[in-house]
């Protein structure tokens, strides 16, 4: 009986994790949509351009810029 209760608990945890993953992906997509057409600059200032697309990966978002550059989205990025 105890094993059945543990299995049920693990199954519930898996379902919660899947729902959280879906929610985080949805949030990332809504943020990505807001970046399209905006100008972004890297924290170091060496990469800058207008966002044409955003790729969402397991490591986070990557902005595809009009000049062909790709800029990982993270701390220090300036959005105009």
Short description:
By secondary structure, this protein is an alpha+beta fold. It contains 1 helix and 5 strands. It has one domain (2-79).
- Name the structural class: alpha+beta
| Gyration radius, rounded | 18 Å
Number of structurally distinct domains: 1
Tell me what portion of residues adopts beta-strand conformation.
Answer: 25-35%
Dominant shape: elongated
Low-confidence stretches: none
**Order of strands across the main sheet:** 4-3-2-1-5
User: Which percent bin holds the helix content?
Assistant: 40-55%
Helices and strands, in N-to-C order? Answer: HEEEEE
Q: What is the mean pLDDT?
A: 86
Question: Helical element count?
Answer: 1
Q: What is the makeup of the main sheet?
A: 5 strands, antiparallel
The tally of strands reads 5
Description of the molecule:
- The structure is a single chain.
- The protein has 80 residues and is an alpha+beta fold.
- The longest helix has 34 residues, at 2-35.
- It has a 5-stranded antiparallel sheet with strand order 4-3-2-1-5.
- It has one domain (2-79).
- It contains 1 helix and 5 strands, in the order αβββββ.
- The mean pLDDT is 86.
- It has one helix at 2-35, and strands spanning 39-41, 48-57, 60-65, 70-72, 78-79.
